[in-house]
Amino acid sequence: MTATKGLEGIVATTSSISSIIDGVLTYRGINIDELAEHATFEETAYLLWYGKLPTSSELKGLIDQLSANAAVPAEVIQQMKLYPSDTNSMAALRTAVSSLALYDKAANDMAPEANVLKAIKLQAQIPTIIAAFARIREGKEPIAPQAGATIAHNFLYMLTGQAPEEVAVKALDQALVLHADHELNASTFAARVTVATLSDIYSGVTSAIGALKGPLHGGANEAVMVMLDEIGSFAKVEPYINQKLANKEKIMGFGHRVYKNGDPRAKHLQHMSRELGKLTGNMELYEMSVRIEELVTGQKGLKPNVDFYSASVYTTLGIARDLFTPIFAISRTSGWTAHILEQFENNRLIRPRAEYTGPVDNRFVPIEKR
Ligand SMILES: CC(=O)SCCNC(=O)CCNC(=O)[C@H](O)C(C)(C)COP(=O)(O)OP(=O)(O)OC[C@H]1O[C@@H](n2cnc3c(N)ncnc32)[C@H](O)[C@@H]1OP(=O)(O)O
Ligand SMILES: O=C([O-])CC(=O)C(=O)O
């Protein structure tokens, strides 16, 4: 038995949800470029869950269902008020999502219809949890979701209590489409491993949130913004990046396990970053990002991934940097839950082997002789 470090190149499951073939990403066979341009997040979630694009009435039905399920149990909000004031946003989300299960009587109901309903509930409630967390830590009361609003609109509304600008809603919605699913990424794999034991969907999504949090995965979008803040101005980009590369440090938001010639989602986020910069009259983050890309691609051949330009997009939308990874989770909940439902449809325990590299022929030594 020989281990493949990081399971690189190992095909661990079949899936009909999303594919990456020759650097092209599709959801249910539809190219991400088409979806980014034309689909809304709710249409995308429907596509991931049901395997087809919704009709107008199916889409309206889903938006209504999401909106009807967006409120979070009062107990979960009460618990969030007791979290330490410096709680990490992804730790807060992971804890709150886990506790949602305590207040759902159907949490352990494994009937397929019950699981679809829980997928929709999780999709509806996660934005509410994140917005509530953002307000509670500022000493403000959470804002109840608005009936009939889309997830992008509702999330921005629940953060501030103000009706969001259309351009902000559109940008966030497009970012949600771009992050919704991505084949067997680490967090989706974590979700599938968890539910393949026939554990419940809340456990699966809680595992996934834990996996997304790390800076080698979803946590990279926040890490990109930390870097941009640290650099501080366009003039300081070149010395900062050159130093990092000379020290063999990783530049967050670059590189990918699967894409070696560039992440097809990055160009959409770059475009959004440029357009939002123009609209707000502040191009500095965009220009700094482009210069970082020139340097990192020029010197290392590494291309930006989905996390790189999302940092400048979300900052230009006025969102705090530690909410970037939770926003990724809002979107990826659609993909995680689609994969969980697919796993349940054709389940087998996921249990690979390990190549043993420890000592052999060791003997037990009585405690007084150690
Ligand atoms: C939504 C997402 O999850 S997208 C990914 C988000 N993560 C990041 O942006 C973090 C930065 N990027 C990385 O750490 C990596 O590119 C990963 C984890 C995404 C994928 O990497 P892997 O396939 O495991 O490649 P690995 O980390 O082994 O790197 C291979 C080589 O490229 C280098 N490299 C990879 N990414 C970077 C980077 N961002 N900056 C500098 N060097 C890098 C490594 O140092 C390594 O060099 P070496 O062979 O000289 O030691
Ligand atoms: O697929 C991966 O390894 C990481 C990624 O880009 C994602 O989850 O969107």
From TrEMBL:
It catalyses: oxaloacetate + acetyl-CoA + H2O = citrate + CoA + H(+). PANTHER family: CITRATE SYNTHASE, CITRATE SYNTHASE, PEROXISOMAL. One of its GO terms (molecular function) is citrate synthase activity. The active site is at 256, 307. Belongs to the citrate synthase family. The keyword Transferase applies. It comes from Paenibacillus darwinianus. One of its GO terms (biological process) is tricarboxylic acid cycle. One of its GO terms (cellular component) is cytosol. Pfam families: Citrate_synt. This is Citrate synthase. Pathway: Carbohydrate metabolism; tricarboxylic acid cycle; isocitrate from oxaloacetate: step 1/2. Keywords: Acyltransferase, Transferase, Tricarboxylic acid cycle.
